[in-house]
Amino acid sequence: MINKLSNAQIAWRAAQDIEDGVYVNLGIGFPELVARFQPAGREAVFHTENGVLGFGAAPPSGAEHWDLINAGKKAITLKPGAAFFHHADSFAMVRGGHLDVAILGAYQVAENGDLANWSTGPNDVPAVGGAMDLVHGAKRVAVVTEHVTKHGQPKLVRRCSMPLTGVACVNRIYTSLAVIDIESSRFVLREKLPAVSLDELQSVTAAELKIDGTVVDLTVPGDVS
Amino acid sequence: MINKLSNAQIAWRAAQDIEDGVYVNLGIGFPELVARFQPAGREAVFHTENGVLGFGAAPPSGAEHWDLINAGKKAITLKPGAAFFHHADSFAMVRGGHLDVAILGAYQVAENGDLANWSTGPNDVPAVGGAMDLVHGAKRVAVVTEHVTKHGQPKLVRRCSMPLTGVACVNRIYTSLAVIDIESSRFVLREKLPAVSLDELQSVTAAELKIDGTVVDLTVPGDVS
Amino acid sequence: MDKTKFNLAEAVVDIPDGATVMIGGFGGAGAPIELIHSLLERFRATGHPKHLTLVNNNAGNGHVGLGALIECGTVKRLICSFPRSVDSRAFSQKYRAKEIELELVPQGTFAERIRAGGAGIPAFYTPTALGTDLARNKPVAEFDGRMYLQERWLKADFALIKAEVGDEHGNLTYRMAGRNFNPLMAMAAQCTVAQVRRIVPAGRIDPETVVTPGIFVTRVVEVSDPQQEEQLNRAGAIF
Amino acid sequence: MDKTKFNLAEAVVDIPDGATVMIGGFGGAGAPIELIHSLLERFRATGHPKHLTLVNNNAGNGHVGLGALIECGTVKRLICSFPRSVDSRAFSQKYRAKEIELELVPQGTFAERIRAGGAGIPAFYTPTALGTDLARNKPVAEFDGRMYLQERWLKADFALIKAEVGDEHGNLTYRMAGRNFNPLMAMAAQCTVAQVRRIVPAGRIDPETVVTPGIFVTRVVEVSDPQQEEQLNRAGAIF
Predict the structure, then answer these.
(1) Is D115 on the interface with A (CB under 8 A)?
(2) Distance in angstroms between the alpha carbons of the first and the last residue of chain D
(3) Smallest Cα–Cα separation from A131: which of C147, C107, C103?
(4) Mind telling me which InterPro entries this protein's record contains (chains A, B) (predicted)?
(5) Residues 6+ apart with CB under 8 A from A222
(6) Distance CA A172, CA B183 (A)
């Protein structure tokens, strides 16, 4: 039984790649955790597509302003230097290439960079939100995800079988087992848990993992949660 | 020798058709005069394409703010209820059909509604400004103009010979001799100076003047200047 | 000029059957709950307006505001980006029963289409949704070696929006992230109705801080203590 | 994050030969005279940058600011809507001598192309200029029974803009009609340099009144008592 990373630990690892002074959009849910783990001495500015730049943590219960929420409709607070704007300006930031990083969740990521994260299929009430805009706007699109589904199915695949959010848009994937880049339409393994062998990792990945240089040990502080 | 209307008198006549509460853009130069003659009890809101809604008269000399100017780069003042905005929002107002009236100058107006008012030809340094946007944006486009050029050439023509500002865009023309509507690609005479006969008016107009109902006497108070 | 002489009932009395109505807000933030409820009361009393096409980012939450409006059956068609919420049963039930049509639009495209409607831009190109199911039947074109989708403007007969301060000319400011789609919808409708927390005389809003210039606004109604969808839902409210 | 650690010389030192540079302002209102003069001083001292493409609504007035920059010969091409002013000889002489290229764009299309550049919209349709000489060689398309012209986005390597207050994050406010193209150009350039009358710490500008959010701004330089083109020209100034 592999001791895979928790969501918080995956988020911690993703946070280590966020440089000082960059503009970041975090998808609803799991990706929101990344904000908790900004490395000391670095300050990123967080963008939420519903019209706030420079927001901070959730307020204490009872102190919410319900006109001050994030894309997930959760109450937020402001940091010094924040700004409000309308939705067209907000997506001008996204689509116009002004965001440095977007970190999103995924149902599936394909080795060609395709992402599926908005619809599980025709039986769903479809809901897309801002995901399709984010994947084409940010300079770098990263995904945080379990390496496999609850049922053990690979989420990293040759081609997505679920409805696409965007074509050839993902640059890097942080999973519960590894850190993988997408380069020239191939998965390139950058880091893996030391306890997982390359064969084991390949067996839960539905497309070839290319090795290009050293594969670094993926280590996360034990107290991250 | 016909006692034709002065520019101020033409502007006075045009101002009589501006209803209470409408949004108006006045072209640079001659059309700016129209603002002086708002009928008592009516309040129009003036738009200038460089980002001000609700401006008023020029300030006294020496009291100018040179960041508070109109499209003609002349200093203006603000009325209560004014607003500033950037150029994309300003032309959203224009092109989006939010202005009620635009009043422009003209080199030539054709019976099909074509307007030429931006270029006298290839020897000019060309300069267009906002004229081409205004003619397609406002709900009603009116022209104020001398009936003929300085050299006595008709300015109301069958087809414009000068470079067009817009196609089929003019609704009404206020000249130094008459008020003429454009309907179904024809000049329809609405008002003329009592001292000018229909034949005389036709002789200085290079397309047929249609009569449709009563032609009203065009009268302007003598003290307008 | 005074655009503030309306009460909540008068503000929505002339919305006709079959109208396209934009409603501001992102979830509950910036949602004009009182205007929506006024419209719903009129529908309950008169049976009109019916067969509405609604334009809102979401599809309501619980049994108040947009959720209640959808529940009552007056909405024929919804154009939105995210018809899912903590409790969006009102919409999902009608959607699954095929009693309501859905046009799903990516959020940035949704915002830009509304702005285009207000700005007189009949169509534009965007990379968003290219190669996805939401690109079906849309024209594509290449610019500078990259492919883009063509999207059309979105306009409405009425917009119901929520703002913070409004003046007699219809100039508006907003409150925090309650701004969202409200300024865009104000531009894109023939008749824009704004509920504001406070009406002030012309000249009281600093011209530098006006967010929506009055030219985009038709009617301003004061609702000095507006309700918030989130709080209504936490209290289990049903309208 | 602190974007305010630049002086006027440092702010323009890396504009390369052949760059496209947007310069804010409508006539003299909102024109960043000191940034323009800093660029001009660099050109006089080093011969660079040369062969610039400038994007400004006008073509300068007199022998200061934009007029002086055009006069010095560093501008290869000008994209503008109205290259005429009380004294636009600097431009007209070079234009007639074919020493400068001109792309003339209707003002609303000019503004919208810049916004499109900033907003990631590669092309859009407008009724403006249809059937005129300025529509030559542009694609047309019909929407809802009316014809429109296709126009392309406009982007730049650098934008030099003028604002009123700026903070460490690059958030900006403007002064009256000095706003004009400045917020749009800020969005459309790879590197946006803003001169402001006053720099304040982050948190001092009310988030509700920020006009240009800092994400669009790269460098902020304080010029506490900026010159105004109109006043310089009335004084007969020559830079």
Answers:
(1) yes
(2) 35
(3) C107
(4) 3-oxoacid_CoA-transf_B, CoA_trans_fam_I, NagB/RpiA_transferase-like
(5) none
(6) 63
* Alpha-carbon distances, residue B177 vs B28, B31, B157 (angstroms): 22, 17, 15
Helix (H, G, I), strand (E, B) or coil at B210: strand
Closest Cβ–Cβ partner in C123, C126, C148 for D125? C123
A32 labelled catalytic: no
CA–CA gap between residue C81 and residue C84 (Å, rounded)? 9
Contact residues for C141 (Cβ-Cβ < 8 A; gap 6+): C125, C147, C148, C150, D123
Give the dihedral sign, CA C131/C135/C136/C140.
Answer: negative
Token representation of residue A3: 């001791």
- Collect all residues of chain B within an 8 Å Cβ-Cβ radius of residue D185: none
| pLDDT for B1 | 55
Contact C180, C46 (CB under 8 A): no
User: Domain coordinates of chain A in residue numbers?
Assistant: 7-216
In a domain, D178, yes or no: yes
Could you tell me if C108 and A133 are in contact, meaning their C-beta atoms sit under 8 angstroms apart? yes
Flag whether residue D125 sits within 8 Å of chain C, measured between CB atoms.
yes
Under 8 Å CB-to-CB from C40, ≥6 apart: which residues?
Answer: C68, C69, C72, C74, C239
In a domain, D187, yes or no: yes
**DSSP alpha helix (H) spans, D64-189:** 65-71, 89-96, 107-119, 182-188
| Residues A98, A96: Cα–Cα separation, whole Å | 6
| Number of domains comprising chain C | 1
Whether residue D168 lies within 8 A of chain A, CB to CB, comes out as yes
Rounded Cα gap, residues A145 and A129, in angstroms: 19
What is the per-residue pLDDT for D208? 98
Looking at the domain assignment, is residue D103 inside a domain? yes
Q: What are phi and psi of A115, to 5 degrees?
A: -125, 135
User: What is the rounded distance in angstroms from the CA atom of residue B61 to the CA atom of residue B124?
Assistant: 32
Task: Round to whole Å and give the CA distance between A23 and A179.
Answer: 22
Range of the domain at D109: 8-127+139-201+215-225
The number of residues making up chain D comes to 239
Specify the pairing of strand B52-56 against strand B45-48: antiparallel
Do strands C75-80 and C52-55 pair parallel, antiparallel, or not at all (unpaired)? parallel
In this prediction, the answer to ipTM > 0.90 reads: yes
Residue-level pLDDT at A123: 78
Angle at D14 between CA D12 and CA D17, to 5 degrees: 105
Average pLDDT over residues D202-209: 98
The pLDDT of residue A1 is 56
Identify the CATH number of the domain in which residue C79 sits: 3.40.1080.10
Average pLDDT over residues D18-35: 98
Residue C78: DSSP 8-state: E
Q: How far is C194 from C187, CA to CA, in rounded Å? A: 12
pLDDT above 70 coverage of chain C, percent? 100
Percent residues over pLDDT 70 in chain B: 99
Quick count: other Cβ atoms within 10 Å of Cβ B21?
Answer: 14
Average pLDDT over residues A140-146: 98
Closest-CA residue to C212 (of C161, C239, C173)? C173
Per the listing, tokens 């068609």 go with C77
Average pLDDT of C129-152?
Answer: 97
Question: Average pLDDT in the D104-117 region?
Answer: 98
Comparing CA positions, the residue from D24, D66, D80, D8 lying closest to residue D229 is: D66
Over residues C119-142, mean pLDDT: 97
Does some domain include residue D133?
Answer: no
DSSP assignment letter at B67: T
Contact D46, D11 (CB under 8 A): no
Exactly one of B49, B111, B146, B200 is catalytic; name it: B49
| Alpha-carbon gap, residue A201 to B166, rounded angstroms | 66
Residue D145 in contact with partner chain C when CB distance is under 8 A? no
Chain B to chain C, count of Cβ pairs less than 8 Å apart?
68
d(CA D221, CA D195) in angstroms, rounded, equals: 5
Report the CATH number of the B7-216 domain.
Answer: 3.40.1080.10
